[in-house]
C-alpha cells in the first residue's frame, strides 16, 4: 500500500498543468498535516513537476523528458532572474523555445519574435504588446513596469510578462547559463535510464524457498535475484553461492545475503559502475525513496551505457573538459615516458590567482589515465588519490606533468605523478585506479 507521502505525490502529479498548489489546499484535500503536505510539495519540486515562485506561489508544471531537459519553463526563468510576474501567471508552466534580445527597432524585433519565444527588452511598451500578440512572453529588464493594458493582455493570452532588476546582458547570460547547466545534466546517464523495470525481472519473497530459486533460474537463466518483503522492500540478495548445499525446503530468508547494496534511480551510471567494480557485484537492485524494488541493473548494462556515453558527442562542456583539453602530450622513447604540458589559464586559478587544488587534481588524474590507457584498453575508475604537496603556481605558468607507472596489473594500476614549473617541482601525487575490461 502506498504511503501518505506517495499518495500526495500521485495527487499532485494528476493535477492539471498550470494549476496553483498550496500547502493548506493539499493538507485539506489529502487529510494530512501541513508539515506532511509541505514535505511532499518540496519533493515534487525536486522531481521537477511543480515550481515555486516568490510572490506567486507553487504551480504544477509539465515534467520534462530527458530529451527536453534543456528547455526552461517561464516559471523557472522567473526564479533564475529573480523576477516579478506582472501578468500572465496562467502561462508560467509553458516552455520557452528560444529567447530574443530586443536591441533593435520594433519592426525588426518582431521579425525574430514568435510563439513560444521570450523577448528580453527594456521599457518599451509597444514591444511588450506586440510580442504578446505574436505569442511570445516578455522579460522586462532594468526593473521597469509596463502599462496596465499590457498586463491585462498578458492575462488574457496566458503569456507571462516578467520584470527583473538586472540589465539585458546579465539576464541573457543567466538564462543561457541555466540552459548550459541543463545540457550538462542531460549528458549524465542515470540508473533510471538503463534499468530493467520490476515487471520485466524475477525476484523472490522472504517466504519462498530454495525450490523457488531453482524455478526462477530455469525460467530466466539467471542466478542472482533480489529478495523483497510483502511491501516489496528489498531485504536481501540471493545467488547460487547462497543456496549451495541447502535443501529445497530451506526458506530464502535464512540463506540470503541481508542488507544488500542498492541504488536509486537518480544515481549516475558512473557511480554505480564504481560501486559494482569495487564490491564485485554483478547485479544491483534499484529502489525508490522507500527502499521498494523498482528494477535492477547488471554490470553488463552499466558497461554498455558507459561505452555508449563515450561514443556520443559532448553537448555541454564541463570545467574538467576545459582543463583537460589544454593538455599537450610529449611522446617519450618508451610508452611509459610520455609527459604532458599545460599553460595555467585564468579559469584554472583560485581567488588569489594561483592554480586551484581541484584543477591540479584533474590534471594529475587525466595525465595518469592517459598513460595507463597505453597499457590497458578499457575504462578506468579512480580508487584513491594522494596529493603529497602543491606549491602556488601563477597564471600563465607552463606546467610539465610527468606520470610514472609504479605498478600495473590485470585489474589495477598505480601511478606516481610529478608536476614541474620552470624545472622546479611544484606538485606531487599518487593515484590508484581500477581497470575495467570492455565486454
Provide a brief overview of the structure.
With 439 residues, the protein is α+β, with helices and mostly antiparallel strands.
CATH topology of the largest domain: Udp-n-acetylmuramoylalanyl-d-glutamate--2,6- Diaminopimelate Ligase, Chain: A, domain 1
* Helix coverage percent: 25-40%
Rg over CA atoms: 28 Å
* Contiguous uncertain segments of 5+ residues: none
Beta percentage is: 25-35%
Strand order of the largest sheet: 17-18-20-21-22-19
Number of strands: 22
Tally of helical segments: 16
Shape: flat
Task: Indicate the mean pLDDT.
Answer: 84
Task: Fill in the keyword field for this structure.
CBS-domain; 4 domains; alpha+beta; 5-stranded mixed beta sheet; 439 residues; Arc Repressor Mutant, subunit A; 6-stranded antiparallel beta sheet; Udp-n-acetylmuramoylalanyl-d-glutamate--2,6- Diaminopimelate Ligase, Chain: A, domain 1
Description:
Residues 195-254, 256-314 form the CBS domain. Keywords: CBS domain. This protein is α+β, with helices and mostly antiparallel strands and 439 residues long. The chain folds into four domains: 4-60, Winged helix-like DNA-binding domain superfamily/Winged helix DNA-binding domain (Arc Repressor Mutant, subunit A); 66-186, HprK N-terminal domain-like (Udp-n-acetylmuramoylalanyl-d-glutamate--2,6- Diaminopimelate Ligase, Chain: A, domain 1); 192-308, CBS-domain (Roll); 323-436, Hotdog Thioesterase (Thiol Ester Dehydrase, Chain A, Roll), CATH 3.10.129.10. 35% of the residues lie in helices and 26% in strands. β7, α7 (148-157) and β8 (161-163) form a beta-alpha-beta unit.
Amino acid at each position: 500500500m502506498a504511503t501518505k507521502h506517495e499518495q500526495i505525490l500521485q495527487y499532485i502529479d494528476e493535477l492539471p498543468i498550470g494549476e496553483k498548489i498550496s500547502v493548506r489546499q493539499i493538507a485539506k484535500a489529502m487529510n494530512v498535516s501541513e508539515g506532511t503536505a509541505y514535505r511532499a510539495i518540496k519533493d515534487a519540486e525536486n522531481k521537477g513537476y511543480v515550481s515555486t515562485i516568490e510572490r506567486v506561489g507553487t504551480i504544477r508544471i509539465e515534467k520534462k523528458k530527458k530529451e527536453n531537459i534543456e528547455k526552461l519553463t517561464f516559471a523557472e526563468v522567473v526564479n533564475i532572474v529573480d523576477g516579478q510576474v506582472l501578468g500572465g501567471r496562467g502561462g508560467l508552466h509553458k516552455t520557452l523555445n528560444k529567447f530574443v534580445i530586443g536591441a533593435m527597432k520594433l519592426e525588426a524585433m518582431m521579425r525574430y519574435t514568435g510563439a513560444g519565444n521570450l523577448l528580453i527588452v527594456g521599457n518599451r511598451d509597444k514591444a511588450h504588446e506586440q510580442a504578446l500578440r505574436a505569442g511570445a512572453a516578455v522579460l522586462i529588464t532594468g526593473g521597469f513596469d509596463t502599462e496596465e493594458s499590457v498586463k491585462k493582455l498578458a492575462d488574457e493570452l496566458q503569456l507571462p510578462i516578467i520584470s527583473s532588476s538586472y540589465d539585458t546582458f546579465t539576464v541573457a547570460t543567466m538564462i543561457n547559463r541555466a540552459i548550459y547547466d541543463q545540457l550538462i545534466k542531460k549528458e549524465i546517464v542515470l540508473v533510471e535510464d538503463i534499468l530493467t523495470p520490476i515487471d520485466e525481472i524475477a525476484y523472490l519473497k522472504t517466504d519462498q524457498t530454495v525450490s523457488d530459486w531453482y524455478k526462477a533460474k530455469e525460467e530466466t537463466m539467471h542466478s542472482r535475484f533480489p529478495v523483497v518483503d510483502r511491501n516489496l522492500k528489498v531485504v536481501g540478495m540471493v545467488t547460487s553461492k547462497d543456496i549451495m548445499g541447502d535443501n529445497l525446503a530451506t526458506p530464502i530468508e535464512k540463506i540470503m545475503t541481508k542488507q544488500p547494496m542498492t541504488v536509486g534511480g537518480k544515481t549516475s551510471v558512473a557511480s554505480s559502475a564504481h560501486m559494482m567494480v569495487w564490491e564485485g557485484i554483478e547485479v544491483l537492485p534499484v529502489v525508490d525513496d522507500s527502499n521498494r524494488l523498482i528494477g535492477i541493473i547488471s554490470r553488463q548494462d552499466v558497461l554498455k551505457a558507459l561505452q555508449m556515453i563515450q561514443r556520443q558527442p559532448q553537448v555541454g562542456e564541463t570545467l574538467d573538459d576545459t582543463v583537460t583539453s589544454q593538455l599537450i602530450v610529449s611522446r617519450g622513447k618508451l610508452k611509459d615516458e610520455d609527459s604532458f604540458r599545460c599553460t595555467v589559464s585564468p579559469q584554472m586559478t583560485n581567488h588569489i590567482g594561483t592554480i586551484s587544488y581541484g584543477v591540479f587534481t584533474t590534471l594529475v588524474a587525466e595525465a595518469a589515465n592517459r598513460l595507463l590507457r597505453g597499457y590497458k584498453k578499457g575504462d578506468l575508475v579512480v580508487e584513491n588519490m594522494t596529493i603529497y604537496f602543491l606549491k602556488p603556481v601563477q597564471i600563465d605558468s607552463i606546467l610539465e606533468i610527468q606520470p610514472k607507472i609504479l605498478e600495473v596489473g590485470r585489474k589495477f594500476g598505480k601511478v606516481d605523478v610529478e608536476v614541474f614549473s620552470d624545472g622546479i617541482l611544484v606538485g606531487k601525487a599518487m593515484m590508484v585506479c581500477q581497470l575495467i575490461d570492455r565486454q
